[in-house]
Design goal:
Helix content is about 35%, strand content about 20%. It is α+β, with helices and mostly antiparallel strands.
């Protein structure tokens, strides 16, 4: 890749390049027709979507804290930044519509790198039908920083909050857990090997492809959300970004309930188990604390689960909601119960605290 300093064209020139990239991507008639002014003015201007409620969320990602450019390409970073931001809206039953992306840019970041970021971001926008409509860029003497604000719409009768879990609800999850952190572990190991061996280094990533994809190009579960909106009544929902344990705690805190989470029910892919074995680590910790899954964690009644079970095989029962007085507990395979630890114990790129 060429490395053209941004100072060669200035921030105004960079804005022109970004505008050309963004304007070349068509999303939908509705989104385009409701956008009155996008990039090039002091603010994006759009019309309200009739008969819809609005969502607004924002995330910041800091180099060295949330991502490592040694093994995260700018294309993957663009994809993942957009997905991480719109996943919060998707998890509430909404549809992301417009995005604003802003940067603090150090000198080491080139024009070509920013363009690669937008290529990844626009791929995600095309897949999830949302449009970049503005942003801001400033120079910094520190690390590369990205801020993404997402605006979305939804139906008022189909908004899912964290605070609706009811006693005796089942608590369920989509997909499988721990693979994102397992992919990160492989990339971190290969980075160490590269630093040690330099020109003699030849990475072997092919055996870990599915875990690396889960980490670098996560996919929010809009498919399951659409099933739920059309067919199911759920009581609470959150996307898993901070890790299963942390996000279970969030639902319990907001709903004033407790939970029994069953170890033997946690869905874990074979590749995740194999990677954990390579590192001589407990794969359950990957699933509980790894984060950056962007799977859905939700609660619903037994009768509603029976309906959902007939529509998809990609949902697993993790446990059951109980009275707040019973606490938030993890039931081991041997039947022993212990308090489920809160907080992020092991961190991925885009760990969040919301």
């Amino acid at each position: 890749m060429l490395h053209t300093p941004i100072k060669n064209i200035g921030m105004a020139g960079l804005l022109d390049r970004i505008k050309n990239l963004v304007d070349s991507e068509f999303i939908s008639e509705e989104i385009n027709n409701n956008l009155l002014k996008g990039i090039s003015d002091d603010s994006a201007v759009f019309k309200n979507f009739p008969d819809r409620i609005q969502f607004l969320t924002s995330d910041s990602f800091v180099e060295g804290v949330h991502f490592d450019l040694t093994f995260t390409s700018m294309t993957h970073l663009g994809w993942k930044g957009v997905v991480a931001s719109i996943s919060d809206i998707i998890a509430m039953g909404g549809t992301a519509v417009y995005l604003i992306i802003s940067f603090c840019i150090p000198q080491k970041i080139s024009i070509e790198m920013i363009e690669e970021f937008y290529k990844g971001a626009l791929q995600a926008c095309k897949k999830y039908r949302c449009k970049i409509v503005g942003g801001n860029s400033v120079a910094t003497a520190g690390n590369f920083v990205i801020n993404i604000t997402a605006y979305g719409i939804g139906k008022a009768e189909k908004v899912f909050y964290r605070n609706g879990a009811k006693i005796n609800d089942l608590i369920c999850v989509t997909g499988h857990l721990g693979a994102s952190f397992a992919g990160l572990k492989i990339l971190q190991r290969e980075k160490k090997n590269f630093i040690k061996e330099k020109e003699n280094f030849k990475p072997n990533l092919e055996p870990y492809k599915s875990a690396l994809e889960k980490y670098l190009m996560p996919k929010p579960r809009v498919d399951i959300v659409n099933l739920i909106i059309d067919n199911i009544q759920i009581n609470s929902m959150i996307d898993i970004s901070d890790g299963l344990a942390a996000d279970v705690h969030k639902i319990c805190k907001e709903s004033n309930v407790g939970v029994e989470l069953w170890e033997h029910n946690i869905p874990i892919a074979n590749i995740t188990k194999r990677i954990a074995e390579e590192f001589s680590e407990n794969v359950i910790d990957y699933a509980l604390y790894g984060g950056e899954e962007y799977e859905l964690l939700f609660t619903l009644s037994d009768s509603e689960y029976e309906v959902l079970e007939n529509l998809t095989s990609d949902v697993t029962i993790l446990g059951r909601i109980v009275e707040n007085s019973k606490g938030i507990n993890f039931i081991r395979e041997d039947g022993e119960s212990e308090p489920l630890q809160d907080g992020i114990v092991i961190k991925g790129d885009f760990e969040k605290d919301k």
